[in-house]
Write a structure and sequence with these properties.
- This protein is α+β, with helices and mostly antiparallel strands.
- It has five domains: 3-62, Helix hairpin bin (Helix Hairpins, Orthogonal Bundle), CATH 1.10.287.610; 74-312, D-amino Acid Aminotransferase, Chain A, domain 1; 317-414, Nucleic acid-binding proteins (OB fold (Dihydrolipoamide Acetyltransferase, E2P)); 428-573, DNA polymerase, domain 1; 594-660, BRCT domain (Rossmann fold, 3-Layer(aba) Sandwich), CATH 3.40.50.
- 36% of the residues lie in helices and 19% in strands.
- Strands 12, 13, 14, 15, 16 and 17 form a six-stranded antiparallel β-sheet that branches. Strands 2-11-10-3-9 form a five-stranded mixed β-sheet. A four-stranded antiparallel β-sheet has the order 5-4-7-8.
- The longest helix is centred in the N-terminal third of the chain and has 24 residues, at 3-26.
């Protein structure tokens, strides 16, 4: 580009970035993904570095964020809040490390602290004599918004510290992914605007002019920087994090010391995949020099510290083309639209398909084949479509009227959003779906019987339902393509080995509408045999804690249906005999007690679930007045708060062990 072209491109980039800064920081409604924003910002930075004469003070590369929103008073920060420069790949990260290390040539490796970069809203909290005086947003780093009243509605922010000191605390206000999904679901039902991601939900909730609305939202706070008035209190950033915990703050537990760039990269590699198991959004790692004196020596650029960088994970949101919409008919007859996409890299994997949930969702999104769509992959394994390009108008995809598998006219039951094929007995897609699910790991766990094998067995006329699997011989398996004798023997053994499942697995595998694994387990704990369930009355089922009216009716309807009764009889004749609860009683010490488990414990949650059930206790997924105990580990979340509000007994892991051993009472 010639000088004029460079100047025009710089001007264009500044306008785009400034417009998107306003949308992101002030309106909490981003127009482009973080990845796209970072690409634009890097291009501007490269052009300005190549043409320093064109750099101006008001360029986005020279300032932080945007100005304050209307409705809040301005607050001048005591200490400026800077942004972070990004390293978007390991080469950039290595260059940053080597550049930083040059300042300290006598040290073989610099000690760093690595932390997760929480995708929320940055805030600064000011305490005097241990009491919260001001809570403010970052704003442009110099002037923020005074949101003290809203901050006080966040339970994880202490209003009084454990020590009467003067200190400024920096941190991130965020909304858990589960709470974000719930909030959007509620907004959808009310026909209100949905938030694009957890970060925007947190920002939008925190900046409500009515602090009561903020208090109602499930907001949390991770503290990440301590700036005490007494500079002798801490010498390193790591000590500062520990001080924050002592003062009563919640600090993200996933921070650690690292020496050398290889160790830093190892930690980034680990969290790039592990982050999807977290209940909060994180889009990268923050790497900081640990020694505070070294931080002060290195100082800052006009917008960012030289002693820190943010390593950005591959994008969790990306634009791609909607090439087609595939219609899938599930085991219950639910008809689900699936987006077929131009393949694109998302969060480290190639994505070709995404969930569209139902046809009401398609209408809400206003999408059709041909649209450019933004997809995300956060907590979900299967990506989902968030929205389309606003300027595009391809119309709205029309929902089908007949089942693509059997040709039956589709129905929409009252009170439900999904379309259904009513032809449960003869629809090939539903029959094959039930067989595939029966053999799946979540259900009967029959190794080797997957979609391909089921398709071949069904098309060959060897099976008509999942009960028929148990009449198959080794020779039958050898009749289908590409299955040799050894494979046929293994498939036969896998089927035969599944004949004595737990009652929970058996009930789950039946594909009864509204009866998933958790509900099946509640029923199995009360009814040890199929005969007991068959003879149960609807009012008896409703009495089970966690079983609602609709689920109880669904069970009754299933066991009264002649087709289902025939399959159950075939299973009995073929030797399938479920055996009560998955957990044999070893004591009655927790008899009649209901537990809710929350937070991170020393062992996987399933270990504690087993202990509770073997001791006669029950489990629930939500806290209510009927809950006897809440077993709480680290970072327990909203269930802990609800238990506190309701006066439910909260147990540490140590107290739980003593209770199970019969060494303590309530």
């Amino acid at each position: 580009m010639n000088t004029e072209e460079v100047e025009n491109r710089i001007k264009e980039l500044r306008e785009i970035i400034n417009r998107n800064n306003k949308a992101y920081y002030l309106l909490d409604s981003p127009e482009i993904s973080d990845y796209e924003y970072d690409e634009l910002y890097r291009e501007l930075k490269r052009l300005e570095e190549a043409h320093p004469e064109l750099v101006t003070k008001d360029s986005p590369t020279q300032k932080v964020g945007d100005n304050t929103a209307q409705g809040f008073k301005e607050y001048k920060h005591k200490y400026r809040l800077y942004s972070l420069d990004n390293s978007n790949n390991y080469e950039d990260l290595k260059k940053w490390y080597e550049r930083t290390k040059k300042e300290y040539p006598n040290e073989s490796e610099l000690e760093m602290v690595t932390e997760l970069k929480i995708d929320g809203l940055s805030c600064a909290l000011s305490y005097e004599n241990g009491e919260l005086k001001v809570g403010a947003t970052r704003g442009n780093g110099i002037i923020g918004e005074n949101i003290t009243q809203n901050i006080k509605g966040i339970k994880s922010i202490p209003q009084k510290l454990t020590k009467p000191i003067n200190i400024e605390v920096r941190g991130e206000v965020y909304m858990p992914v589960s709470s974000f999904e719930k909030l959007n679901e509620e907004n959808r039902e009310k026909n209100q605007k949905e938030f694009a991601n957890p970060r925007n939900a947190a920002a939008g909730s925190l900046r409500q002019l009515d602090e009561k609305i903020t208090a109602q939202r499930d907001l949390h706070f991770f503290a990440y920087t301590a700036i005490p008035e007494d500079k002798n209190l801490i010498k390193t950033h790591y000590e500062g994090l520990n001080l924050l915990k002592e003062l009563g703050f919640e600090v993200n537990p996933n921070y650690s010391l690292a020496r050398g760039v290889n160790e830093i990269i190892e930690k980034c590699n680990y969290w790039e995949n592990e982050r999807f198991n977290l209940n909060y959004a994180t889009d990268g790692m923050v790497i900081k020099i640990n020694n505070l004196n070294k931080q002060n020596e290195l100082g800052y650029t006009s917008r960012a510290p030289k002693w820190a960088t943010a390593f950005k994970f591959p994008p969790e949101e990306v634009w791609t083309k909607l090439e087609d919409i595939e219609i899938s008919v599930g085991k219950t007859g639910a008809v689900t639209p699936i987006a077929i996409l131009t393949p694109v890299q998302l969060a480290g994997t190639t994505v070709k398909r995404a969930s569209l949930h139902n046809f009401e969702e398609i209408e809400r999104l206003g999408i059709n084949i041909g649209n450019e769509v933004l997809i995300k992959k956060a907590a979900e394994i299967i990506p989902k479509v968030i929205r389309k390009r606003e300027e595009e108008n391809y119309g709205i995809y029309k929902a089908p009227e007949i089942c693509p598998s059997c040709g039956s006219k589709l129905i929409k039951p009252e009170g439900e959003v999904a379309l259904y094929c009513p032809n449960a007995l003869y629809c090939p897609a539903q029959i094959k779906g039930r067989i595939i699910y029966w053999a799946s790991k979540e259900a009967m766990d029959i190794d080797g019987i997957g979609e391909s094998i089921v398709e071949k067995l069904y098309n060959a006329g060897l099976i008509k339902d999942f009960a028929d699997l148990y009449k198959l011989t080794i020779d039958d398996f050898m009749k289908i393509d590409l299955v040799k004798e050894k494979s046929a023997e293994n498939l036969y053994k896998s089927v035969q080995n599944s004949k004595t499942p737990s009652m929970t697995k058996f009930l789950t595998a039946l594909s009864i509408k509204l009866i998933g694994k958790e509900t099946a387990e509640l029923i199995a704990n009360e009814y040890p045999s199929i005969e007991d369930i068959e003879s149960a009355a609807e009012e008896d089922l409703i009495k089970i804690d966690g079983i609602g009216d609709k689920a109880a009716k669904s069970i009754i309807d299933y066991f009264r249906n002649d087709y289902n009764v025939n399959i159950l009889n075939k299973l009995k004749l073929n030797g399938v005999n479920p055996k009560g609860s998955a957990y044999e009683r070893t004591s009655n010490v927790l008899e009649g007690k209901t537990f809710v488990i929350t937070g991170t414990l020393s062992e996987p949650r399933s270990v504690f679930e087993g202990i509770i059930k073997r001791a006669g206790g029950k489990l629930s997924s939500s806290v209510s007045k009927k809950t006897s105990y809440v077993l709480a580990g680290e970072n327990p979340g909203s269930k802990f708060d609800k238990a506190s509000d309701l006066g439910v007994i909260i147990l540490t892991e140590q107290e739980f062990n003593l209770l199970v051993e019969g060494k303590i009472n309530e």
